[in-house]
Amino acid sequence: MSILWKRTMLALLIVSIADGELEQWCIADEQTPDGELQMALDWACGKGGADCSKIQVNQPCYLPNTVRDHASYAFNNYFQKFKHKGGSCYFKGAAIITELDPSHSSCQYEFHP
């Protein structure tokens, strides 16, 4: 890599950080088995306090109807709701942070700075 490219990337990173918090979403890790995702999803939508109403039948984030997609929505809802109160995007290793907005068609994933 050229030194110019490295300096440019460093400058962009500094500007991004100086401009405010990077946008981050919490999604299901593609390597996590569905059974583990389901347990984490159940916790997030139950004791965790995530709002999972949008992943119910006939709601904007129901489709695609997969454990992975529903878990991603629930994990992100929890993360956005509680990240400034000590909440994390861990879910026993079932989730990861992404800086790419996972929203699709009518399903909009929340982001709170």
Describe the structure.
This protein is mainly α. Helices cover 40% and strands 7% of the residues. The protein has 3 helices and 2 strands. The chain has helices at residues 3-19, 34-45, 67-82, and strands spanning 25-28, 95-98. It has a two-stranded antiparallel ribbon. Helix 2 crosses helix 3. 27% of the residues are buried. The model has no long low-confidence stretch (mean pLDDT 90).
Element layout with pairings:
Elements: H1 3-19, E1 25-28, H2 34-45, H3 67-82, E2 95-98
Antiparallel strand pairs: 1-2
SS summary, helix count: 3
Distance between the termini: 33 Å
- Given helix and strand content, the structural type is mainly alpha
The helix/strand order is: HEHHE
Overall outline = globular
By DSSP, the count of extended strands is: 2
Poorly predicted residue ranges = none
**What's the mean pLDDT score?**
90
Bin the helical content: 25-40%
Signal peptide: 1-20
Subcellular location: Cell membrane
Protein name: X8 domain-containing protein
Organism: Salix udensis
